[in-house]
Amino acid sequence: MTALPPQPLSPLDGRYRSAVVGLGDHLSEAGLNRARVQVEVEWLIYLTEHRMFGSSPLTAEQKQALRALADDFGQPEIDRLAELEATTRHDVKAVEYLVRERLHALGLDHIAELTHFAATSEDINNLSYALTVSAAVRESWLPAFRAVIAELRAQAKQYRDDAMLARTHGQPATPTTMGKELAVFVHRLERVREQIEGGVHLGKFSGATGTFAAHLVADPDADWPRISREFVESLGLDWNPLTTQIESHDWQAELYSRISHANRILHNLCTDIWTYISLGYFRQVPEPGATGSSTMPHKVNPIRFENAEANLELSSAVLDSLAATLVTSRLQRDLTDSTTQRNIGVGLGHSLLALDNVQRGLGQIAIDRQALADDLDANWEVLAEAIQTVIRAEVTAGRSTISDPYALLKELTRGKRVDHATLTEFVNGLEIGQAAKNRLLALTPAGYIGLASELVDYL
């Protein structure tokens, strides 16, 4: 059998690439290397700006030409780094040499030794990952997440008054509204969104074991912690003063745990929407030309929500692993995080793909109000809760002597279908005040929704 041409192994880089392509700008190997170049260049510029070791500030044109190495990072730089790494067998060293080559081309060889000055590879890597992960979440994942929340919010408001039978434990239960149930998901997702947006992105820049040892030997009079903090914060990151060789990755663990939490809430949403479709509460709007089943022409399958479920599970599996493993490093450094962090894009990619499916799925469903009404009308027994609660209030108020109202209603309704006429006859025979009796006689399953509609306003 003839071998296939080179193919992407991951479906994120093949079948689903269009949905996640934005992440590649940040979380690919090229995206990481571009950030490494940025950090190396900015550190060099910082040192010259502060005239460290007798250097002089670069001109505006020189700084622009140096920064262009990161700003215009493309295929030539990717190819050159591959050539350099083939010799160095060290990815960060290859980046250092690439920056040195640019310095040489600009006639700046006299400051070449400030490239990667007093920095361990992890000083460059931790800042690069912080920059790329922060940008990926901010520019790709969060916009998709917010879009799903916005669509859910709109539907929660649209369906706020659409009464439906609740199903606790899968059984008919006290009615609610579709809007209120969707609002619950909006509220849950908004809390996690706020936590993700409010999270810090830490960076360290303190040398081989986090002690500034080489820095201090090079210049005993410099305030290296202050310099480190200023540099890290100049990149838009938060400074971590106490580390080993590596930044401890706790902020990453927090972020991935929160995104995994968001995934699980979305998974819950998908299973609920799937069930509502199965019950007929939502109708699916067929896509022109689409096929639901290869053999059953009538079917419109809820594939968007099923696909989302699977990708949310995959995402959480990767992100949970990252959160669990990245917080541990043997003594002052090991390399277990090196390969691990290269899978950040995989974890976020499956989540982003799921968000795309959820968004599209929500746009392809429409509520079936007749189905909701029919289901409510077939389950008058759910009013048993209301009746026994009113009886209890009447007993307490001295307007009834009925003993054990719960048992009375349990005998009438448990495991049985009870219609309107049966409940009307039962209520008319109760020993309760007339005002209470009138309230119960006016009650219907569709009207027994409490404050469900008003609760949507808490959004």
From TrEMBL:
<dbReference type="Pfam" id="PF08328">
    <property type="entry name" value="ASL_C"/>
</dbReference>
<keyword id="KW-0658">Purine biosynthesis</keyword>
<dbReference type="InterPro" id="IPR000362">
    <property type="entry name" value="Fumarate_lyase_fam"/>
</dbReference>
<dbReference type="InterPro" id="IPR022761">
    <property type="entry name" value="Fumarate_lyase_N"/>
</dbReference>
<feature type="domain" description="Fumarate lyase N-terminal">
    <location>
        <begin position="27"/>
        <end position="308"/>
    </location>
</feature>
<protein>
    <submittedName>
        <fullName>Adenylosuccinate lyase</fullName>
        <ecNumber>4.3.2.2</ecNumber>
    </submittedName>
</protein>
<dbReference type="Pfam" id="PF00206">
    <property type="entry name" value="Lyase_1"/>
</dbReference>
<dbReference type="InterPro" id="IPR047136">
    <property type="entry name" value="PurB_bact"/>
</dbReference>
<dbReference type="GO" id="GO:0016829">
    <property type="term" value="F:lyase activity"/>
</dbReference>
<comment type="pathway">
    <text>Purine metabolism; IMP biosynthesis via de novo pathway; 5-amino-1-(5-phospho-D-ribosyl)imidazole-4-carboxamide from 5-amino-1-(5-phospho-D-ribosyl)imidazole-4-carboxylate: step 2/2.</text>
</comment>
<dbReference type="InterPro" id="IPR024083">
    <property type="entry name" value="Fumarase/histidase_N"/>
</dbReference>
<feature type="domain" description="Adenylosuccinate lyase PurB C-terminal">
    <location>
        <begin position="329"/>
        <end position="449"/>
    </location>
</feature>
<comment type="pathway">
    <text>Purine metabolism; AMP biosynthesis via de novo pathway; AMP from IMP: step 2/2.</text>
</comment>
<dbReference type="InterPro" id="IPR020557">
    <property type="entry name" value="Fumarate_lyase_CS"/>
</dbReference>
<keyword id="KW-0456">Lyase</keyword>
<dbReference type="InterPro" id="IPR013539">
    <property type="entry name" value="PurB_C"/>
</dbReference>
<comment type="function">
    <text>Catalyzes two reactions in de novo purine nucleotide biosynthesis. Catalyzes the breakdown of 5-aminoimidazole- (N-succinylocarboxamide) ribotide (SAICAR or 2-[5-amino-1-(5-phospho-beta-D-ribosyl)imidazole-4-carboxamido]succinate) to 5-aminoimidazole-4-carboxamide ribotide (AICAR or 5-amino-1-(5-phospho-beta-D-ribosyl)imidazole-4-carboxamide) and fumarate, and of adenylosuccinate (ADS or N(6)-(1,2-dicarboxyethyl)-AMP) to adenosine monophosphate (AMP) and fumarate.</text>
</comment>
<dbReference type="InterPro" id="IPR008948">
    <property type="entry name" value="L-Aspartase-like"/>
</dbReference>
